[in-house]
Amino acid sequence: MSLKNIFLTLLIGCFPFIMFSGNGYDLWLRYDKITDVHLKQSYLNNLSSVYKFGASPSLDVATKELVTGFHGFFEAQISKAAKIEKNAIVLGTKENLPQELLSILNSDFEKINEEGYILKKVTYQGKKITIITAKTDVGIVYGTFRLLKEIQLHHEISALDIQDSPKIQKRVLNHWDNLDRTVERGYAGFSIWDWHHLPDLIKTEYIDYARANASIGINGTVLTNVNANALVLTEQYITKVKALADVFRPFGIQVYLTARFSAPMEIGGLKTADPLAPEVRAWWSKKTNEIYAEIPDFGGFVVKANSEGQPGPRNYDRSHVDGANMLADALAPHKGIVMWRAFVYSEENPDDRAKQAYSEFVPVDGDFRENVLLQVKNGAIDFQPREPFHPLFGAMPDTNIMMEFQITQEYLGFSSHLVFLPKMWEEVLNEDTFTHGENATVAKVIDGSLSNRKLTGMAGVANIGTEKNWTGHPFGQANWYGFGRLAWDPYLDSKTITKDWLQMTFTNDDGFVTPMAELMIDSREAVVNYMTPLGLHHIMDAGHHYGPGPWIKDMPRADWTSVYYHKADSLGIGFDRTVSGSDALSQYALQIQKKYDSPETIPQKYLLWFHHLPWNYKMENGQNLWINLASKYQEGVEEVEKMNTTWSKMKPFVDNERFNKVASLLKIQLKEAKWWRDACLLYFQQFSKMELPQFIPTPEHNLEYYQSLKSPYAPGIKPSWN
Ligand code: BDP
What does the annotation say about its assembly with partners (predicted)? Predict the structure, then answer.
């Protein structure tokens, strides 16, 4: 063989590895080869062939995934048998199973809901088989991914006995994607929806996106930005949406659209969008009928109304209830739903922004239709590195309340910083709202159990784009993954999520998984510390929100500035939200009010969220506030240093491409953690007039330098917003 041929053979041989191993495209669905011969044999002993009872596109999806998995794990073909063989995997929904199997599984079916699944080793006609069954098609898909996951985690499968069901009904990604393919707050390239080529071009990415979502139980996708464009509701675009819906259906994923409230005027030629005007109601009703004629399982609408310049019912002196119910009535005949966003604050309202959503919505508790979900961000300001839970959770027992998390890291270092968000979401979900009885956690509000709600949901603002690895930062994938897991089970602990994800995405080697799980868990507190410790919030640069900007003032609205939130002055720092200040604290239950009212008893992580305190205020550890603030910033930086060291030891476990990318990104993160620390401390020092403590290295630059830094082309924002 000539040298050239040897080179080509090597290149082609390596190609699949280069394509699928190192670039991260295959996410957590890598199905890496099982090299341990005993383990491999034990699996093969349990997986002779696949047999299906019944037929459906979802069963085809499940079978195909098994084939893919089998090929990856064992470099072999799994046979699709015409009859049930010994050690077969048997798929089929309840209605298609023979009586003999049904009677074995009777009590298992009692344990699952409509989307749940059963994965069980049983004996049927004298043969041991692995059954994957469910009440609906999509349950089979979920069960199949679960079986594959058990193998990815190298778990024993010879005595499987698993029943699992989602605890939340609507588990949706919100894409803030525009029709021109820019993504608002998107840091992973452009929108994956190639609107121009739809409906004719169906990209492989659409299918792989659906596989990834189904593997973690996500069952809905809102294709368009909350700052909506009415054009997506025109016939031309509905055809494109239908093409995507057709791809997603077998994976159990419904599509939703954002509805621009003024659409009846913009694309319907009406003179008003007043929700009580008969012609407006008729227009929406006709529009929804048109959509459902094309997409019979269309999910419904998400609406951002009367917020940050978006049109809404308030333009016509109508309430949010009038607006939401009007759309709900149009959708109800088709079983569609409205996700009405509670992210509402008005430039005309001088009240603390943190209070406005509660003041707007609590008085109308119980007035929304049954097919309306009120979509509430985890905190009352805006997806900050740390916020106390939103006071609306628990305060509207007669309304369907859903959670909105932000997976894309708008305020947490874009796709440059490694921050494991499920740790933060877990903190919010576990908080006790003290509203109805014992242990009234946010998770119980969200899964409906606290006040017996029939419609439940969790939304995550997606971090997905056209980057080869979908999310830009290889560890951004963990946040997508973790969102799905928590939407399925909001009681899950984030440690389990890290471990599963690390094993599926990198390796099962404990030398990697244990230190990296710890790194991921700690990464959340690190970002809080180097950006906004002790309850500080919203002090990033304006517009694009990248990097520190505690000096930001003079914006079109006071509540878009940093000085509004930190209120640093010669007397101290922090936002007084007690009764002597904005009194936002009064929106929480009495138990919380009592505890948070005093700076002595409030958890220190929320200190400056609720209190304005003197720089020399003495804290728990005996040191003053200034020293504590500085030491938190320093801790944050040191944690990122530690993350760099840990990762540098992971080279033996990771392919070069991902290893190098993460190593470079961690260096950026360290540089920027120092930037945050130095810029913020130098800025606040002007007011504290105290020396920087010894443990803070001398800042590389002066304050003027940090203030002069500009990022005019930071990603994720319309240039006009900058
Ligand atoms: C803010 C984002 C803005 C979104 C808004 C929202 O900066 O781009 O439109 O949230 O959630 O955090 O509507």
Answer: Homodimer.
Distance CA 154, CA 329 (A): 49
User: Which atom of ligand 1 is least distant from the CA of 226?
Assistant: 13
CA of 387 to the centre of ligand 1 (A): 16
β partners of residue 302: 258, 339
Residues 134-178: tens digit of each pLDDT? 999 999 999 999 999 999 999 999 999 999 999 999 999 999 999
Closest ligand 1 atom to residue 184 Cα is 8
Helix (H, G, I), strand (E, B) or coil at 110: helix
Q: How far apart are CA 463 and CA 499, in angstroms?
A: 21
Q: Where are the beta strands (DSSP E) in 400-511?
A: 401-406, 457-461
Going by the DSSP 8-state scheme, the letter that residue 28 receives in this structure is T
pTM > 0.90: yes or no: yes
In words, the CATH class of domain 31-164 is alpha beta
Angle at 198 between CA 194 and CA 200, to 5 degrees: 130
CATH number of the structural domain 170-500:
3.20.20.80
Distance from the CA of 381 to the center of ligand 1, in angstroms?
Answer: 11
Q: Is the pLDDT of residue 17 over 60?
A: no
Residue 719 has a pLDDT of 54
Ligand 1 site residues, Cβ closer than 6 angstroms? 184-185, 226-227, 304, 308, 343, 382-383, 410
Mutate to test the pocket of ligand 1, among 308, 384, 557 (most ligand atoms within 8 A of CB): 308
**Segment holding 455, helix H or strand E:** none
Task: Considering the chain, tell me which residue range(s) the CATH 3.30.379.10 domain(s) occupy.
Answer: 31-164
Given the CA of residue 304, which atom of ligand 1 is nearest to it?
A: 13
| Amino acid making up residue 363 | P
C-alpha–C-alpha distance, residues 528 and 535, integer Å? 9
**Is the separation of the CB atoms in 166 and 115 below 8 Å?**
yes
In which order are the strands placed within the sheet that holds 89-93?
A: 79-80, 49-52, 89-93, 127-134, 117-124, 161-164
CA distance 207 to 594: 51
Share of the chain above pLDDT 90, in %: 94
**Max Cα–Cα distance, the chain, nearest Å:** 84
Going by the DSSP 8-state scheme, the letter that residue 20 receives in this structure is I
pLDDT at 9: 43
State residue 11's pLDDT score. Answer: 41
pLDDT at 583 over 50: yes
CATH of domain 529-575+612-708: 3.90.1330.10
Chain region(s) in the chain for CATH 3.90.1330.10: 529-575+612-708
Q: How far apart are CA 180 and CA 174, in angstroms?
A: 17
- pLDDT of 5 over the 70 cut: no
Chain mean position to CA 344: 20
Q: CATH 3.20.20.80 region(s) of the chain?
A: 170-500
Ligand 1 centroid from CA 109, angstroms: 42
Query: For 594-632, how does the pLDDT look when each residue is reduced to its tens digit (9 = 90+)?
Result: 999 999 999 999 999 999 999 999 999 999 999 999 999
Residue whose C-alpha is closest to residue 447's, from 486, 484, 480, 420? 486
pLDDT (average), residues 570-576: 97
Q: Token match 């080529």: residue?
A: 197
Averaged pLDDT of the chain: 95
